[in-house]
Amino acid sequence: MKYIIKTILIAVLITSCNQGTKKDQNKTGKEDHTSHKKAAPSKKKVLSPHTYAMSMVGDAHVHIDYSSPGVRGRIIFGGLLAYDQVWQAGAHKATWLETNKSLTIAGKELKAGKYGVFMIPSKGEWTIIFNRHWDQHGKDEYDEKEDVLRFKVKAIVSKTITEHLKYQVKKQSNKKGIITFAWEKIIFEFPFKINQ
């Protein structure tokens, strides 16, 4: 009997203590939620946003898809990116170009399709490369044997800095267009013609 009375007394004490705690919380209007609050989602700025450039030139749709890295106070060409080495022409995944019509670039044919865009920066002329393997991370799987077109362009050193890499596809006529590149202090362009 003593055991039963002790058990009942302990139960009554625990219940009254819990109720007192709840009453105290209600009186003050405060309750500590720090142990179960979710952390606010991070709003971290994307350093190399995914973007694209495209245009209709006559009935040809020319589309460039890339991630646009920023300069952020760095020396890019000849610093972050070594001269005379293959670069994926953007950040993260390889930059790619897609065209629904065959193009002539630098006197050579680029058939309708989708291609990885790679470049070899140098102090003078840059090498532009279109490669069959368009879907790859960076240049991890780049293979020169898969190149379908290579040509050189003259890079111009600008006095102003282009903070984020920018491509443009510009229509010049129903048969001709131009692709431009600008990043850091480097700018260049190359024309293309729509094949019949």
List keywords for this structure.
196 residues, 2 domains, six-stranded antiparallel sheet, globular, disordered N terminus
Please write out the topology.
Blueprint: H1 2-28, E1 50-57, E2 60-67, E3 95-99, E4 103-105, E5 108-110, E6 113-120, E7 125-131, E8 147-154, E9 156-171, E10 176-194
Task: Characterise this structure.
Helices cover 14% and strands 43% of the residues. The chain is mainly beta. It folds into two domains: 1-30; 50-194, no CATH class. A six-stranded antiparallel β-sheet has the order 1-2-3-6-7-8, with no helix packed on it.
Query: What count of domains describes the coordinates?
Result: 2
Number of β-strand runs? 10
Largest sheet: 6 strands, antiparallel
Structural class: mainly beta
Give me the side-by-side strand order of the main sheet: 1-2-3-6-7-8
Q: Overall 3D geometry?
A: globular
Rg (C-alpha, Å): 31 Å
- Uncertain segments of ≥5 residues (pLDDT<50)? 3-39
What is the gist of this entry?
With 196 residues, the protein is mostly beta strands. Helix content is 14%, strand content 43%. The radius of gyration is 31 Å and the shape is globular.
